[in-house]
Amino acid sequence: MATLKYLLQSKSENSQIYIRYSIDRKNVLWRKSGHVIDSKYWSETLSQPVQKTDALKNLKSKLDKLSIFINDRYNDGVSAGIEFTGEWLQLQIDVFNKKTPVVELDVLTNYIQKYIDEAPFKQNQKKELGLSKGRIQNLKLFKNTILKYEVEALKGKSILVKEVNLQFLEKYKMWMFGKGYSTNYVGKNIANFRTVCRDAFKNDIETSTQVKNFKGVSESREPQDIIVLSEMEQESIKKAVLTREALINARKWLLLGCLIGQRAGDLLSITENNIKEISGAKIIELKQQKTGKLVAIPLLPKAIEIIESGMPYKISLSRFNEYIKDVCKEAELNTPTKWRKKETQGEPSVIKVSPKHEAISSHICRRSFATNFYGRIPTPILMNITAHSTERMFLSYIGKTTYDNAHQMLEYFSRLADK
Q1: Is the pTM of this model over 0.70?
Q2: Where would I find the Phage integrase SAM-like domain in this sequence (predicted)?
Q3: CA-based Rg of the chain, rounded to a whole angstrom?
C-alpha cells in the first residue's frame, strides 16, 4: 500500500510543504504540494500544521483532502496499470489545485517548431500558401537564439508561451544587446515573438494580454555605412583583367544586377526567356519571388551590351557571393570599408573594417541600382522596380532622408520654373 507524508525541507517563514509518496521501497516520489507554511507552525511529529488558528486548521483540511485525492487516483491507476512517476504525482497535485498542467505546446520553443512544421500551410505576404525559405530560416534562427538564451540566462529553464510579456522582452533585449546582436536583428526577434504568440492565442494556448503591445526596434543605417558600387567602380570591374571563366561569368551577373535592381534570387534566375521587346525597346520581364509581383525593367544600353555578349550561365547564390569578392579584388576595390561579418554560424555578426572587396555580397546589386539612379529616375518608378512598398523604406534602404527627398523636389520645381 502506498503511503503519503508531508515534510518541510527548510526552516523559513515560507517553507514549501513537500509530499513524499512511497509506492514501495524502490519507488519514492517527491513533489511540492503547492502550499507553504511558517516552519514554526509545523509539527514534525504529526507531519501537519499546528492547530492554533483557523488558517492553520484550514490548511490542514486542504492537505487531508489532497492526500485522499492522491490515494484515490493511485488506486484507480493500479487498476488501469498506470506507471507511477514524479510527473504522474505532479499532475494529480495540479488537478487538485485546479492548476492547468503544462502541455507540450505551452513551451515556447515547441510552439515555434510547430509553427515551422506548418510553414507550407501558412499564408504568406502574397496571400498564398507556404512561407518562403528565407522566412523559415529566420524562424529557425529565432528558435536557436531562444534556446541559447534559456541556457545562458535561465540555466536551461524552458520559457512558456504565457511568460512572454513586456517585462520578459526587456530582459531578452538586454541579453541580445549584451551579446552584440544588431538592433535590427533584435527587432526581428520581437516581431517573431508577436507573430508566434498571436498564432498560439488562436490555437487556445494561454498567452499574455500584453502581446498586442509588443513593439519592434530598428535603426536606419548611416549613409556612410551603406555599401554600394558607384558607376566608376562598376567601370573598374568591367575593365578588370580576368582569366577564370567562373569570375568572368560572375562579373556579368554583378554588373547586370547593378543595372536592373533585383534581389539576387530573382537576378540569378533570369534566362533568355525573360528578355522581351516592347515597342522596339528591350526589357526584362520577371515575377519577383518574394512579392509575387510581375515587373518589366527597361534595359539600359550597358545591360543590353552584357546580354548580347552572351547571357551568363546560372550559378548558385553562395557561389555568386564567393566569386564577386574575387572579381572586386581583381578590380582593386580596396577602400577601407566598415561592414558586418558573421564569423561563426549562430553568433551575432561583428563590425569590421577591411578592403571593400571583402565586404561585397549579392545585396550590393539592388542597393547600387537604387542609389545610383535615385534623383535621376522618379522615386515611384524606382520603388516599383526594387519592390519597396513604401517611400520611407526605400529612402532608408539607400541611406536617404525625407530632407534629401525635399531637395529633389526643389530641383524638379526649379526645372519647371525655368520652363
Answers
A1: no
A2: 109-213
A3: 32
